[in-house]
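Course assignment 3, question 2. Fill in each field.
Student: A.L.
Task: Predict the tertiary structure for the chain below.
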Amino acid sequence: MDAKKLDMTPSEEVLDTESEMLTSPSPKSGVQRKLQIVALMLFTLTYSVCGSIRYGFLVDAFSRRNLTGKLFGALESSLFIGFVFMYLVGGTEFAMRKINNFRTLFVLNLLGHAGLTLATGLVYHIQDNYVLMVVSIVIRVLQGVFAFSSCLLPVDFAHAVFPDQFDFVNGLGLVGNFVGHGVAESIGCLLYDRFGYVAPFIFSSGLTSSVACFMLVVMPTSRTFLSQEMAVILETAPKKRNSKLSKMLVFPMISTMLINANYGVFQVSLTPFLHEEFGKSITYGGTVLIFASLGMAIGSLVGGAALQRKILNHYTLMILGAVLVLIGLMLTFPPEFITPVYKLAPYLAFAGTLLAGIGDPVITVSTLRALYTLQEERMGRPSPALVTRITGIWLVGYCAFYFCGPFIGGFLNDYFSYSNSALILAGLCVISATISLTMRLIGSKTCNSDEKKPLLEKYSPNSSYEYDNASHLTSRKD
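Answer field:
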């Protein structure tokens, strides 16, 4: 046994063990780092494909079984039930503490997605419509359970393995997510038309299983960021207030939730708007929507890089995102009273969806940084468990309005014209930008040099750690 450990008290041995745990291996080489980031992007892309591949053809498939659109809406909404359930019971956090191995966690998650998406295709052969709907809803709820874990794991991985590049790596993860949304519907429709209902699900299940094998080779076995909680408690004994959420977090969440509904509205309103008002084909509308997905990929990359390089602070980026969505709405659904511009809507829609697509993830990725920083400023540096809880709130808030978007769009279209509906949504963008501007003006310390420090400092053999008067984790030389 190590002579040094023979002289340790039991509590010191625990601290030494936890200190070793905190220094979980970062990628050793540039190639390894790049492979792990590629694996992370493939992970977010594949679970996005599993969730989105049926959107383009499910209505048609259900219509052939005499199932109404309301049932389709209920089925898709059931995904959010599983998503929220997993957040409330803390199932993902329990698994992250219990398994505590990134490679195993990522692979198990993907295998769960692969099995459920394949089951989604196979149950279509059930002849009884009632049984089909019940089984499909159960599967969709389970997909929601895995979806929450799929959203939380990449953020925890970025915190643990790339703490100094968190914002950039988190943005890259979102790039994979949005690219998956963009390509899934097109691939799904193509396979459905040529090979039938089950083919898209076989494809997505096979793709997901292949990525799981790749991650089994590439991803590290390092411990999760959440598992570092015990070391922080033992070493720093943080004040009680560091375990509470700041009430101010509600304002950035409201700001981003007002924006997140727009993509769902675009999905519902754009194609019928171009078809009914200008006689454009359904394929034309689908092509325009691809630009929204392209914009989302660009926005995720640019937003994460801007935060990482401190080009703009998070509230400024949130305002910029709201403005881009506002401009995109006005270009895609121009006001009818501006006749010359309104007539150009089918062509302006390409630029409009691109700008709105860029703005949405810019505000989304910036909101997460705003929540972390605001919590630290108001209540002191959060523990890993609290960081995970804040991330969960961010995910639930984002996805709540993302899933509500189609219902909001359908409701507005029933009572207002497409252009007037866009004006209402534009008003939400203005409110969102106003909230972000207010938060910026009341004294947020976004330019503080500590903002980009990892949320959990690593232990050094020559240092001890304590909370200073600002409740930040600081280093003091012996």
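Instructor remarks: The CA atoms of residues 97 and 227 lie 6 Å apart. The two ends are 26 Å apart (CA to CA).
Grade: pending
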